[in-house]
Structures are given as C-alpha cells and as structure tokens.
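User: For a benchmark we're assembling, each entry needs the component sequences followed by a predicted structure for the full assembly. Here are entry 17's components. Please fill in the structure.
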Amino acid sequence: MNASPLLEVRNLETYYGPIVALRGVSLAVRRGQIVVVLGANGAGKTTLMRTISGVLEPEKGRVLLEGADITAREPDEIVRRKVVHVPEGREIFPLMSVRENLLMGAFTRTDKAGIATDMEMVCGYFPALAERLDQEAGTLSGGQQQMLAIGRGLMARPRLMLLDEPSLGLSPILVKEIFAILRRLNNEQEVTMLIVEQNARTALATADYGYVLELGRIVMDGPAGRLAASKDIQEFYLGMKEESPRGRRRWKARKTWR
Amino acid sequence: MDALQLLVSGLANGCIYGLIALGFVLIYKATEAVNFAQGDMMMLGAFLTLGLNNEAWMGLPFWVSVPVAIAGMAALGYLLDALLLRRMFGQSQIAVVILTIALGFILRFVAGVIWGHEPQSLESPIAGMDLRIGGIVLGLDEIAVIIVTLLLTGVLWLFFARTRLGLAMQATSQNQLAAYYMGIPVKRIHSLTWALAGAMAAIAGILFATKGAIDPNSGLLGIKAFAAAVIGGFGSLPGALLGGLIVGLVEPFAARYIAAGFSQIMPYLILLLILVFRPDGILAQVRQKKV
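Assistant: Structure for entry 17:
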C-alpha cells in the first residue's frame, strides 16, 4: 500500500477543443511531500490541476489516487476523496462572508464538531481571516483573498492539496508568508501538496521535489535542491546571469533538454 | 381614499410581478440562462391548482390542491433542467433562450388543451371577500397576496442565509468554478434552483388566480415581470421584488391619472429610463474581481 504514491499521473493528455494543453504528462506525489511543478504562462499548469480535480476530462492517460483510478470522476467525488483544488486568482465567493466561504469549503463534510474545530485551526493559521469572519469576502485585499482560498481548501480536511499559483499577484513579502504557512501546514497538519508555480525561487525553497513543465510536457525533474542548482533552471526560471567564456550572456534561449 | 385602494391593488399586482421576477433572477443567477417560460410556468401552476381545486374539475380541498400544485411545479422545474437544459450545457446562450421561449409555447398549448381557453378563477376560500375599514373597501385577496409575499420573502431570506443548500446555491451563482472545486454538486444545484423557480411560479400563479381570472395566455405577464427584474437589477433578488413593486404601483396610478394609451407604456418607459441612466438596474450587484 505504501509503495504506491499518494497521487500518480500517468501519460495525461488534455485538449481545450482542438488545442493540446497537456502532451503526455506523468508525475508522482508521495505522502507528506510538497511537490512543485514549474512552468511559464501557457505551459499547461492550470490544465494539469483541473484535469486532476475532475473539472476537465483528459483524452488519454490516468490519474491514480493511492493506486485507485479517479480519472475524470465528478469534481465533488474527488473532493470527497480528500483531494482539494485551491484555484489560481483566488476565485472566492465575493458576496458571501469570510465565514460562509470557509463553510463552503467544508460542503462535503457533515461532522459539525469537526468543522468547528477546523474553523478554529484555519483561524489560527490565518489571524487576518479570524479578525474578518463577518466581512464580505470580495472586500478583502488580494493577499487575504489568497489566504481565504487556502483556508477554504483546508476546511475539506484534505490529504492532498492542489495549489494553483498561490503567489500570483502578491508582493514578495506576502509570497514568503504564504509559502511559510504552506510549509507549516505540510508539517503540522500532514497535508501533502502539489503546487504549480511560476515563482521558481520560493517554490523550490519550499518544495521537496520538482518538475519542469514546458508546452505541455515534463522536461526535467528532480529533488528541489538539485533543480535549484541546475544551470538551466538558474538561467530560465531564476533569472541568474552567467558570464560565458566570451564575456557575454547566452543570447539564444537554448536549453539542454532541447 | 381612492389613492389607498390604488396603492393596495398596485402593491398586490407588484407582488405577483415580483414573484415571477424572482423566478427569472434565481435561474439567471444560478445558470446564467434566462428562462422566458417563467410566466408560462406561473400560468401552469395556476391552472394546476385550479384543476385540482375547482368544483368543475377535481374538486379537492383548497389546502390539498395548493401544496400538491406547488410540489408538482417544483418537480416540473427540476425535470426540465435535468432532462432538457442540462443537455444544452456548452451551447450558446441564445440557444437556451430560444428553447425556453419554445417551452413557453408548449406550456400555453398544453394548458389550453386541458383546461380550455376561457378565463377561469380559482375558487379559493377568500375569493370575493372584502375588508372594510371605515369607509375603505379593500379586497381580502389583495391583502392576502401582500401578506403571502412578505412571508415568502422572509422564508427565502432564511433559506439563502442559513441553510447549507441555500448557501451552496449562492456560492454556485457567485463563482461556479470555485463551487466545483469545493465539491458542490453544481449540476444538481442547477436543477434544484429550477425546482425552486417552479415552486415560486406556482405560488405566484395561485395568488394571481385568486385575485382574478386566468387563461392560457396569462403567462405573457412574464414579459412585464422580466421588465421588472431588469428595472430592479437583473441578478439581485431584492431588486427583483423591488422592480415588481415599482411596475405594479406605476400601473394603477398611471391608469388613473394619465391619459389612456399613454398609461400602458409607463412600465416600459421606466425600463427605458433605467437602462439609459442605470444600466445595471436599481440594486445592481456588480463587483470587480481583484487581481
């Protein structure tokens, strides 16, 4: 049982109409890990998340949760299996209060006592939300909305959280804060995480393992430390400049995997 | 005391417009489709009650006919969505609109075949009774309409603010994608919203048929209710009721004080003015998403 990873994606191909968004993606997330998928705009990151959470149906390939096939199941069934998608761009319920938003996160649960305890747990991690439980969610700042989206996801008591660009549109300090909280949740609440990100520096510093997604394909993977040390990652995702023997920066975008 | 009587009858009419408008807005908010058969569902709900209740038809007791008709219309609404509208998912909005317009024709035809085209009134316990206070005579039916609408508004408010299902309906209408991510069964919520709109239509129809006569074309009242929903702010539930009350109140006063021929266009004139000066309606719920 423990041999199979918590989440395994095998050779996933997903289309948006005639456009291929994923061209055979395979990856694995082990219990307790934070796994990050790096990729630029249009690499297929959001498509990957939506295919796992059942909002999109793949053309080919399989999604396995602890070895059980959950490919293209209804999204509510996937949440009931304790896999929660925290969407990009916040995507909260803007006219409902913070409390109501959090309660919607627990929609698939019926244990009232457990929901109340988890509400307190979420408020403990995000004091900014605790102070604003009765405020309309649409009036929160961008960072608070991101915290609400994560908190709302936690309310389902997930085993696996799918986080779509938690750093999007946030200031560097807030990004640090959010990732620190994610790390703590991973340690203290034993939430396994699959994060897709453009912000490679912070993501690799937080994660255990990383994949690089380009134009719908996984082009590189490895432990987060090794990826962060790789020349290609440093140049194309971390923006570090390297002096070439001719004293000039490589001007052509040539990567070792091309 | 002429004005008071006009006021009460205007409010009563306005409540009925408001209830139909609520049905429009409920479905629009949840599914982003406009159900142009809402008025005809109101008519069908009225005929269903009348068919169960009136001596000439089945002659069941009034208090049996009413809940049966409401439940029947709720079931019809649920099935319409589950069997028809759900299949239209992903089609253009205009296809859905045309489907609901066609549906309206079908409902009118079916009602005409079953119950005939002659205007009929619902034989309710309070039909034709008056309430006399001093020198004023008010129709008990009109007072009943206003009271029932007030109660119903309260019940709806509690439902949306306090119950799990009501909150899930709100959530689905505010952000459908996020509702999917939370594990809310969005498709079933859509069908349940149609069921709720069906029940609302039945209640509006019962009130309408208590107050006056209905025939299969009474459903065309839906157009006025649609205007009311737009005036109040399409997408706002309180707005729908408010819009209904405005249209309802304007009509009798315009008929009394403005020359015939002009008075009938007053609701639409207000609609035009609202669209020009406050295009989102009076109680618009528009909020930009933060990035």
